Every structure is written in structure tokens, then in C-alpha cells.
């Protein structure tokens, strides 16, 4: 079965517009070497009940984008420009005081490392009831009952007992479920899941992702799923954004992306996924080189120094996001997409010389990238 076959089908959302609209969002940080452009000119939208997957390597800007939208940036070093509209409200000029009214009740985040996201010296129950009492003004008894039900809803066994446990007394999978329960406590409309399966084994990863999908469906939440793995979002998101060097380099509905990817970086991410069909000791395909310096980004395409199909134009001219054949739902930023004659010629030559590990054809990626379902 291919990734394209498992790609999530669109979820109809009748009578609603986007819950989130981001336009030309940029975020930079002050550093001793100059400003670091972590996010550059990102635009996206998301409707209630749908999932947007944001994919890219470490340092591509995925997590900074999520934190920029949520207002979780250090005030002393961060600078954010652009527009963020959530449920018709412009958030770009909001500070911590205004955002605090949204955190938990309107938007929430599942952080990628539950051991650092949870307070190690505070019991699990206290960490869940804290937001319930602050935001929803529940009394102690009601908050406890609600917290136990939340733990039960995320499939933690013996929730009454676990209510009084400390984080170190639980496994990594259980801690991740607690983080999900904390994020769900006040019924947010928008959930950010930042690498929610990091450091978990494959079986637990699938359980956590299934749990998120179930909770999203029951609560009709919008969700932004941040990951480095295209296989994770293949069956979970209706639309995928691929980021590199703080920019969107490809954006498309999930089925479209896997059936007709255009950006060489997207192709490289897919090729890097281990495949169950490969024999033992098969060499893994890696993306050579390093991401660009975001203090002094390259003049042309940021992926050019690592792209096997690079041409002279790529080194001097930054490609703009361009619709595919006039289709505004599928955008890519590349002068020579993977199906262009110039790229096909180079690909055939490199493959013949044994210098290029062939990637699977679009829409036929191996079962090894499946999410465990």
C-alpha cells in the first residue's frame, strides 16, 4: 500500500470559514551574529475539524511557526511581522496578557518532550486541574473529577491512581498521553501537536496518533501536526506544508502532494523514509549537506547547495511559490521541479552513474513509511 493510498481524505466542514488565517508571517531572533530569520513570509489557513501537516527537517522553522502563531516567543529577542487572524480576531499585535485569554481555552499545544513539558515535582492531577480551575473556575472536587475523566479519555489505565502520580513514575507513552490530556483540558478549538511522537516506539506512536485523531473528531478541533516524517502525516492530514529554511517550499492537499510532488526537497524527505520492502542492510537515503545559515541565507534557492538537480539559475534567483497549472491549492517553490525535462535528464544521468539512490515514483512509496495502522 502506498502513502498516497493512506492519505487522509478531506473532512467536510459545512458552513464554516477558516478558523485560522496566517498571512506573510515572519519571525526573527536577535543573536550575536545578527538576526536569525527563522520564519520567512509564511501564509496558510485552516478550517475547524481539519488537520494541517507541517513537515521539514530540524531547523526548518516548523516549531517556531507554531509558537509564533500561539504567541509563545521570547519578548526580548523575537520580532514577529505579518498577520495572524484567529476566529476573526487579529492577533499580530497581541501581548502575553491578551494571549493568556486564548491559551488553553481557544488554542493549546502538545509539546514534543513530555519530560520537560511536565513539572517533575508536581503530581499529574495538579497539572491538569490547574488550568481547569484557572480558566473554567471549577471547584476542587469538580476539577478532580474532570481530570480523572480526561485521563480516562486518553486511555490511561487506573486514572484515579495515576491522578496522584509524578511524571517520572510513568512511561514515555503515558507521559505523552498526560501532555495530551493537559492540552485538551479546557476544550481548545485549535491544537498544535509539535512532534507528538518523538522518542516513542512505532507501536506507541500509532496509538498516540490514533488517540489524537479520535479526540479531534470528537471535539471538532482544528489541528496543526508538526513532524519531520512525511509518513506520519500521510494518513492524518488533509493538507501538507513542507518547510525549508523558514519558508514554505511546497503546499498541497495530501493526496495531491504524494501523487504529484514538485519540490526536490519533498522528494528527498520521502526518499529518506526507511522502507519495509527493502532487503536487510540496504543503504538508507540521506539528504547530504547541511541546512543554510539563517543569519546569512544564500542568494538563490536555499536548498540549492544540497539539491542533486541544481543548475546555475538556482544559485542566484530565489524561486517564488508558484501554482501548479493554475491550481492555487498546490504551490511549489522551485525553478526546475522533479518532473521537468531538465531535472529528469540529470536524474537519469546520476542514476546511471550510481550517484543517486532512486526515490520511489510519486504515489508508490513503500509500506515502511506507514504510521502503524
Walk me through what this model shows.
The protein has 373 residues and is α/β, with parallel strands linked by helices. It has one domain (1-8, 18-106, 188-373): P-loop containing nucleotide triphosphate hydrolases (Rossmann fold), CATH 3.40.50.300. The protein has helices spanning 3-6, 62-70, 96-99, 114-117, 124-136, 140-153, 159-162, 172-184, 202-219, 230-234, 254-259, 264-271, 312-316, 341-352; strands at residues 18-29, 36-47, 51-55, 78-86, 89-90, 107-110, 190-194, 222-227, 239-244, 247-253, 322-324, 327-332. Strands 6-7-8-3-9-10-12-11 form an eight-stranded mixed beta sheet, sandwiched between helices. It has a four-stranded antiparallel beta sheet with strand order 2-1-4-5, covered by helices on one side. A hairpin with a 2-residue loop joins β4 (78-86) and β5 (89-90). α5 packs across α6 (140-153), α6 crosses α8 and α8 (172-184) runs parallel beside α9. The radius of gyration is 21 Å and the shape is globular. The relative contact order is 0.15. Mean pLDDT is 86; it is low at 6-15 and 359-373.
